Amino acid sequence: MSSNDSLARASVAPPAPALAYRRVLLKLSGEALMGEEAYGIDRLTIERMVGEIADVVASGLELAIVIGGGNIFRGVAGGAAGMDRATADYMGMLATVMNSLALQDALRQRDVVARVQSALKIEQVVEPYIRPKALRYLEEGKVVIFAAGTGNPFFTTDTAAALRGAEMGVELVLKATKVDGVYSADPMTDPDAKRFRRISFDEAIARHLKVMDATAFALCRDQKLPIKVFSILEEGALRRALSSDDEGTLVHV
């Protein structure tokens, strides 16, 4: 064998790990889009995320996404202080529509077809949420982005993720955060905090671990819908979370 052949073999990347799921829902926080910015959308950050999404979709994954609006609402939070809670929540829902459109456009630039469905009717901008149509999009290999939360005030986008995940019949809810899983204590303040690889819903409740808000967590538990918490900030983490038990923390029945 020539030295050139040896170099060619050495330069071949190992095959990407196979995905363990067919259909999942990814919950992205609005803050994850900010990168190092104080608020808004950091273009390099969203492009990196979209690259990882495009990679797993190309592998045949049926993917739905729910995204928050904290990165946009943070910019007007001062003016919202003292505002009626329902009004503030509707403002937050509109912020998720803006993020969803930005994500859809970034996916389009990577040749990934995405459809945005909104729980609020803004038909000049995005189509309304229609469950059968969303299911058909997923079956066709399109990414479906659910905007405007549940369409109701007093419910978080975590709850929207749990609700849409159950409605879409997903096998897993992926919660993308800034930490790489669920810990026994706050890893930012406790150096002895240990990351759980797997933990049951009941144990998470008994330990008072905050995985999602209480309504979302209860809905996932009742529907026997597992949650995996992982860090979206680590390169390649999305594929690893979908193919390996070692990435993040799996919360299961």
Secondary structure layout:
Blueprint: H1 3-11, E1 23-28, H2 43-58, E2 62-67, H3 70-73, H4 77-80, H5 85-108, E3 114-118, E4 127-128, H6 131-139, E5 143-147, H7 157-168, E6 172-177, E7 198-200, H8 201-206, H9 214-222, E8 227-231, H10 237-243, E9 249-252
Parallel strand pairs: 1-2, 1-6, 2-5, 3-4, 3-5, 6-8, 7-9
Antiparallel strand pairs: 8-9
Helix pairs in contact: 7-9
Give a description of the structure.
The structure is a single chain. With 253 residues, the chain is an alpha/beta fold. The protein has a single domain, classed as Carbamate kinase. 40% of the residues lie in helices and 17% in strands. It has 10 helices and 9 strands. The protein has helices at 3-11, 43-58, 70-73, 77-80, 85-108, 131-139, 157-168, 201-206, 214-222, 237-243, and strands at residues 23-28, 62-67, 114-118, 127-128, 143-147, 172-177, 198-200, 227-231, 249-252. It has a 9-stranded mixed sheet with strand order 4-3-5-2-1-6-8-9-7, sandwiched between helices. Strand 1 (23-28), helix 2 and strand 2 form a beta-alpha-beta unit. Helix 7 (157-168) runs parallel beside helix 9. The longest helix is centred in the middle third of the chain and has 24 residues, at 85-108. The termini are far apart.
